[in-house]
Amino acid sequence: MKALNHFGFPVLRFNFRGAGLSEGEHDKGRGEVDDVRTALDWLDSQFHLPIVFCGFSFGAATGMRAGCADPRVAGLISLGTPVAAEGRHYGYSFLEKCSKPKLFVSGSRDQFGHQPRLQEVVAAAAGDNELVLVEGGDHFFEGHLHEMQAIIQDWIEKRFVSGTHAEAS
Fold first, then answer.
1. End-to-end CA gap in the chain
2. Does 169 map to a domain?
3. Residue 92's closest CA among 162, 29, 14?
4. Structure pTM?
5. Per-residue pLDDT reduced to its tens digit, 45-71
6. Using a CB cutoff of 8 Å and minimum separation of 24, what contacts does 54-59 make?
7. Which domain holds residue 48?
């Protein structure tokens, strides 16, 4: 949130259904994709700007699914991309048809983002993709938040600010 807000972009941070104080029940990723679509609709209605989606862990996996299919989304950032967590395995075959620029940031010690599998996901994804491993970082980037923020800012700067004058949410 802070990395995107650094550029003055409007940022929306929300809880999925059933998380925090939000209403509803967790829907194993199905309804949560609708939650992301609703958030994208709201951002578009309020700001009418191209959108850069950024999500963490489950939110990244779910949000990329919604963002890839949405023409308003100009780029995707996935932080702590899970490939397996608590008995759940995440599938990313939809990325094979998603040519939007994508940034994947993962800790080198991410317990839910096994590096060889994550590298396969990134390699199979269409378009301009970048995987950055934060050395020593775990799934939550504990002690490495400033480094993660700098990586995001650099990626945004190169793709959406410098020379293009494109704005994003």
1. 10
2. no
3. 29
4. 0.90
5. 999 999 999 999 999 999 999 999 999
6. 54/1, 54/3, 54/4, 54/79, 54/152, 55/79, 56/80, 57/81, 57/82, 57/85, 57/112, 57/139, 58/16, 58/29, 58/32, 58/82, 58/85, 59/16
7. 2-8+28-161
Tell me if 90 is assigned to some domain: yes
CATH number, domain at 67?
A: 3.40.50.1820
Q: Is 61 inside any structural domain?
A: yes
In a domain, 101, yes or no: yes
| Per-residue pLDDT tens over the stretch 120-145 | 999 999 999 999 999 999 999 999 99
In total, the chain counts a number of residues equal to 169
Residue found under tokens 């293009």: 164
- Which residue matches tokens 């390699």? 123
| Total count of domains within the chain | 1
Token pair 């995107």 is found at 4
